[in-house]
Design brief:
It is a single chain. This protein has about 375 residues and is mostly beta strands. The protein has one domain: Tachylectin-2, Chain A (5 Propeller), CATH 2.115.10.20. Strands 1-26-25-24 form a four-stranded antiparallel sheet, with no helix packed on it. The relative contact order is 0.15. The mean pLDDT is about 95.
């Protein structure tokens, strides 16, 4: 697809680590592994705001026969050490503890969220708000805060994030009146439920959200079904955005006719269009290091989002190696575009994505693509 504009607007080189929340708090040097997966919304002044996931890692994780990792603990940042012979370090994003009865891993970075204000078209940085960073603040965030998604419902902004810890891998909610000063509302979805996207508007007086529970076990559909067993994008409703009840009807499911939905999950919060709710989601085709991530889209019924009006099987946005070529010395992962935000740009939509788990990508796509 030919996009109007498609470029990287923020990457690890743009982060001032002297203003990081970790600066001066651990006895080790760090670097930005990735500045990516930005939530996106429009501010009252007309500018756009990205909440960028900053994955901050140790420059020298291996020391004295052990691998080290950063952890937040009761208001301070600490280093944990694991003997090299006890871990598998194949993946640069995480290492796996050997000899465990189930998969247990430690992240090689700790993530926090950095507000980056962009121009109204999303193409240039206006200001980086280090003083408004969202950082771990509870025990269930000891390994970091990841992948913000921002929705504006009425006069308030709602931001969901993934909070990571040994306690649980959960979804947390933040609220704000201006999208700059955030109040943490706490856990809204429990263990291993990712990619929660709150619809930008009420339906029947209720909040709606897409969710994506994780798991290792799925029951088979009948052999002649059009659906394939596996992770799917589910729906939930809430009276207050805090207490969520799962929908009894399925949402967007993997389709047997495609390879790109071997795994799938929510991307940008659904927004209302004349055709219905436009939802951008990611599909993962097997291949490469972690699979090939692309962005796809569906239109959901405006009154009953469990009814899919249209799904386009051709990708909307694909990984673009040409964009990250100037950052080739920083690349550790390829074939990934992970869309996390959308805003109205007039005749086009402004779409924010993480490219290669490394940088923030802004794409302008004409609205008539979805007509």
């Amino acid at each position: 697809m030919n996009h109007i504009i498609d470029r990287l607007v923020f990457d690890p080189r743009d982060v001032d680590l002297s203003r990081s929340p970790l600066a001066g708090h651990i006895p080790a040097e760090t670097f930005v592994l990735g500045a990516f997966n930005p939530g996106l919304t429009r501010l009252a002044n007309g500018n756009l705001l990205m909440m960028v996931r900053i994955a901050e890692a140790l420059t020298e994780p291996v020391c004295d026969g052990a691998v080290r990792a950063v952890r937040w603990d009761a208001g301070q940042y600490v280093l944990d050490s694991y003997p090299l012979e006890a871990v598998d370090m194949t993946d640069p994003r995480q290492f796996v503890l050997r000899g465990q009865p189930w998969r247990v891993m430690v992240l090689t970075s700790l993530s926090w969220l950095l507000p980056v204000e962009l121009s109204a078209d999303g193409l240039s940085v206006v200001q980086v708000h280090y003083d408004r960073a969202v950082t771990p603040a509870a025990s269930y965030q000891s390994h970091g805060v990841e992948d913000a998604r921002i929705s504006r419902v009425g006069d308030r902004y709602l931001m969901t994030t993934c909070s990571v810890s040994p306690e649980r891998h959960c979804t947390t909610l933040y609220s704000s009146a201006d999208a700059l000063d955030w109040t943490m509302e706490g856990i809204v979805l429990d263990h291993q439920n990712k990619d929660m996207l709150i619809f930008e508007g009420l339906i029947g007086g209720k909040y709606w959200a897409q969710t994506r529970p994780l798991g290792d076990l799925y029951f088979a559909y009948p052999p002649d079904s059009e659906w394939r067993a596996g992770p799917s994008i589910n729906l939930s409703t809430s009276p207050d955005a805090l207490h969520w009840k799962p929908s009894e009807r399925p949402g967007i499911r993997p389709h047997t006719a495609t390879l790109h939905t071997a795994r799938m999950g929510g991307g940008a919060p659904p927004i209302l269009t004349p055709q219905g709710w436009l939802t951008l989601w990611h599909g993962v085709e097997p291949g490469g290091d972690v699979g090939i991530y692309r962005t796809y889209w569906s239109i959901l019924d405006r009154d009953d989002p469990s009814r899919c009006v249209r799904t386009e099987h051709a990708p909307l946005i694909e990984p673009n190696a040409a964009l990250t070529a100037p950052l080739d010395d920083l690349i550790y992962l390829r074939d990934v575009v992970f869309t996390t935000g959308i805003a109205d740009g007039g005749a086009h939509y402004i779409i924010a994505s993480g490219e290669a788990d490394l940088a923030c990508r802004i794409t302008h796509i004409p609205k008539d693509v979805f007509a």
